[in-house]
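Notes to self, peptidylprolyl isomerase:
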Amino acid sequence: GGSRPLPGQEVSVKVLGALEDGGLVERDPRLIFVPGHGDVVQALELGVPTMQPGEVSFFLAAFPYAYGRPGSREPDVPPEAPLLFEVTLLEVRDGPDPQPLPPAVRLRLGSQRRERGNFHFARGDFAAALRSYRLSLRALDGPTTAPPGPEEEEELREQRVKCLNNCAAAELKLGRVEEALAACEAALRISPDNSRALLRRGQLLAEQGRDAEAALILRKALELDPANKVIHTELSRLAKRQSPSSST
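result:
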């Protein structure tokens, strides 16, 4: 019925996913994704590019290619569960990223990819999470068909800051302190009063022994979020480290 999806193209599929006992756990009449971007389970990432538009395929996925060892809460998949997917390839089209798109579509793509990053992060796959967060940023920063309105501009800004904060968290989990610090600083260039980015930047500076800079950043974070116990703890730790008694 047509050519198979090429790298970078976007696909629309109808998906049903069932457990071995026949229980239906996943039903999506129109799932849209770009194979290779990590937005779906590996069974679909690997299987859909072998299909042609209009084709119906069945993929029996061992748990590493479905929802992994921990399973999933949404959809409700038990740990180490294999799944049978029935997939219909509905449409293949050029990927959205290079194309000018309406701001609302950019926001939808960015949110979808950030949520997928959160899914990977919760499962401990921090490299996959970071990849999804970067793809989210790419969607949010892509060309638009028209200038965003004030509300859309504000939402785009907030989404970028959330993604950059999430990038910093994933970089930290991967042991890349300099990259995490750079992500925090990028978030603060967009939103200088973002308390989450300020807190993490202060923590990272303290880890590097830059106590005076860290204290300034953390005090600013405390002014913005005075009830935050983590900020109080970090400032107390810095104060103890800088006190004369702690050095004797």
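- Helices lie at 42-47, 103-122, 126-140, 150-173, 177-190, 195-207, 211-224, 229-242.
- The CA atoms of residues 8 and 106 lie 17 Å apart.
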